[in-house]
Amino acid sequence: MIYFDWAATSVPDSEIIDKVREAEKIYFGNPSSIHAEGRKAKKLLIQSREILADTLNVHPEEVIFTSGGTESNNIILFSLLARSAWKGTYKKKVIVTGIEHPSVYDPALFLQKLEYDVVIINPDQEGRIIPEKIAEAIDARTVLVTCMYVNNETGAIQPIMETGKLIRDAEKKTGRKILFHVDAVQAFGKIPFSLSSLNVDTASISGHKIGGSKGIGALYVQKDISYDFLYKGGDQEDKRRPGTENIAGAYSLALNGKKAAALLDDRLTKTRLLMKRLISSLSGIKGIVFLPQSRNKENQDLFSPYILKVAFPEIPGEVLVRMLEEKGILVSTGSACSSQKKKGKHRVLERMNVPAHIAESSIRISPGCLTTEEDVDTLLSIMARLIPELQKIM
Amino acid sequence: MIYFDWAATSVPDSEIIDKVREAEKIYFGNPSSIHAEGRKAKKLLIQSREILADTLNVHPEEVIFTSGGTESNNIILFSLLARSAWKGTYKKKVIVTGIEHPSVYDPALFLQKLEYDVVIINPDQEGRIIPEKIAEAIDARTVLVTCMYVNNETGAIQPIMETGKLIRDAEKKTGRKILFHVDAVQAFGKIPFSLSSLNVDTASISGHKIGGSKGIGALYVQKDISYDFLYKGGDQEDKRRPGTENIAGAYSLALNGKKAAALLDDRLTKTRLLMKRLISSLSGIKGIVFLPQSRNKENQDLFSPYILKVAFPEIPGEVLVRMLEEKGILVSTGSACSSQKKKGKHRVLERMNVPAHIAESSIRISPGCLTTEEDVDTLLSIMARLIPELQKIM
Fold first, then answer.
1. Is pTM beyond 0.90 here?
2. What value, to the nearest 5°, has the Cα angle with vertex A163 and ends A160 and A166?
3. Which residues of chain B does A333 touch, with a Cβ-Cβ cutoff of 8 Å?
């Protein structure tokens, strides 16, 4: 089986798994315990936090370990309930983009039910948010803006730096702090960025997207931000995220993040070439639609080479996924987190004004760090034969 | 080092760690993916859920995997926000006990700030909740009652069955559903119970207390209960707990739970004998105070033999913990989750009317499944020498 669904989850790094499991046996103490085993475990937790902070180019106290990207995103959206829901007398405004992951978008819709003014900013046809549209929506009631870094369906890299700058400008005008949250799950370890220079207040990352364990993620909270988090309990994670720390998970995230950062440039260069080869050959298949359409023309720097979305209008995406699987190729129709949803499965494409029948016939091809030229060529030769066959019978 | 802090976290089961590690490499897919790797991973998740459900004597669809006991407890308390906070016009009542873990107690205090009527029921001097006191507090506005199963400080087993029965009676009177939540973290795998026969609606358990990994837990939700959970995102865990599932963690919890259940009776018998030996010998140390005082007299069935709380009034608990550590014995002052708290560190003892100076000089001795008679005798001989020495110089 050739795996082209790295955006859903990555093939784990076996060496790091072995290292982490050995650590799990040795550093088994509860890091909140004051005795020797507790202190030993705490040391590994501190070390993991330092490694991750270093990778993100932030301070260790700005890194909170969570159970994953979904929890990190939910913490931010629902911390509003703890912060301000019952205080201010005015209707608070939250700005989200229409292409967010469900773990940002669905909490935002829930805030709307709670009488927050939730403004949804849609992307252009290229799947890209225009920073000025966010800036225009900001007013004195705005408490939070969220925009993801790399879209998990199209791979479109969002203009975080520019958006952050406009938010900081708006703050000066309104005289109020506006939190800027970035879901960096598909960006971390894959495209280069330094959190501390992005004008971002909070950001989410996940371990299992970069070779690490499932059930671990992190939340960056810029150190001048004081958040009153909703979930309560023990004073772990500097009183911000209660619960006995998942030390093995934290260590896994730290090691995989470090490795991904060290190899990022080489992998990116390699994957850009693979993606170029993939796009160029796929262009030759009759009827293919790139999503966005300019994907095969535009500057590749505007997209992550780890995600490609294409459609073959006559062929339902799910059929193509199954047919490719029969030939030994694993791709997906789109986001795994949305795969079970009946409504909103194709929200990201809808917001780019992609017609429903195109969205229904789309697949996501997502290479990863272990993907080879041979894998790509196998995929291409199978698709080149399979697509015309399917087009004939559909 | 002899480890007597199993209530904080357990020594992990190395064999299961190895088994889980191999599974993590093989079943790496995202269980929400529809392709072969996704289905393979989902199969292990389903199997883990079935094993755990079988151990708890409940249906698989009643088991939700979470990141731990703290999250499970928080989900229940804060699901109220999603359920009813903005709906009913009357002030809703939540009843909690004064001896709950911080992950129940602190969310309850937060609900109080949000204008919930939060009633706190304190235990008797034995550290035990009187079911009738809970029943008396119930009225037509009551939406939730929570009571832990085994107290994490004293080991006192709470009358869950009786409390549940009274709550079911009260429901008949008020004509409204009252949710009964039980934090079973210190009970699961240690004392025998069947969730389905306890009149309980929801219950929390944790993996790392029974030899499993940190960062995994579960929430039992009785199948007739419809909860609108707060955190949103993907449709994982039957739309109740979003986020890519921690399959390795779920498998770890399932395997450790199954093993603990299989060995529960033997371990319980063995540990009851060890605890009897421990209590009987400790009684000989001048000045010792058992918490509760009747612990050395009363029927042992009222306490978990895995937790013992004692105090030596002249000796600060933290000093004793460090002195014992120097002699190779690891005990704790109390709950690890409360160890960093400045306020409320001794809340459980306070609620039992234990004087502050006694609480300050208390330690928790918590044996586990690997604890031997020799370990207990070593602890006893060290304490028999150390305590009088310390009493002299204090």
1. yes
2. 150
3. 34
